[in-house]
């Protein structure tokens, strides 16, 4: 039996050596010879998706931060995270903050809970970071659910 040879990707020092390696594996992967930056980058170009246009190919996929209150409320670190999502330049936020429908149904003791207090917070004053993040990220992608959310939280 022949021993398995493992090629360490960091050991492939040139684009061509990486291209040769994936060709040997039979993987069809398009690779650029150099990294294009700024507005010329393929990631900066709008992306058509069904009948919508996403402003660029950058996407934020939020994960649960474990940083709510023990009563299921919003905290400053959570607001800051969502504000940063909106300001990041990504034009799509895929998903949202994990929320429980009942206190005993939370996945962790600091998970948000959907209740009237949380609804009031998302509609008021300094706690508008989620709306801000969605507005920043959806300038070029106005999904019906996002429009409804923004209308109900004004």
Q: What does this 3D model show about the protein?
A:
The longest helix is centred in the middle third of the chain and has 12 residues, at 76-87. Helix 2 (76-87) packs parallel to helix 4 (129-137). This protein is of the alpha/beta class and 154 residues long. The chain has one domain. A hairpin with a 2-residue loop joins strand 1 (47-49) and strand 2. The protein has helices spanning 15-25, 76-87, 116-122, 129-137, 144-152, and strands at residues 47-49, 52-54, 59-60, 92-93, 99-100, 112-113. The protein is elongated, with a radius of gyration of 21 Å. The model is unreliable at 132-154 (pLDDT under 50).
Shape: elongated
Order of helices and strands: HEEEHEEEHHH
Please work out how many helical segments DSSP would assign: 5
Report the span from N to C terminus.
68 Å
The stretches of 5 or more residues where confidence is low (pLDDT under 50) are 132-154
Q: Give the oligomer, counting copies of the same chain as homo and different chains as hetero.
A: single chain
- Strand-pairing-aware structural class: alpha/beta
Largest sheet: 2 strands, antiparallel
How are strands sequenced across the largest beta sheet? Answer: 1-2
Tell me the Rg in angstroms. Answer: 21 Å
Mean pLDDT reading: 78
DSSP strand content: 5-15%
Number of domains: 1
**How much helix is in the residues?**
25-40%
Number of strands: 6
Structure in a nutshell:
The chain is 31% helix and 9% strand. It has helices at 15-25, 76-87, 116-122, 129-137, 144-152, and strands at residues 47-49, 52-54, 59-60, 92-93, 99-100, 112-113.
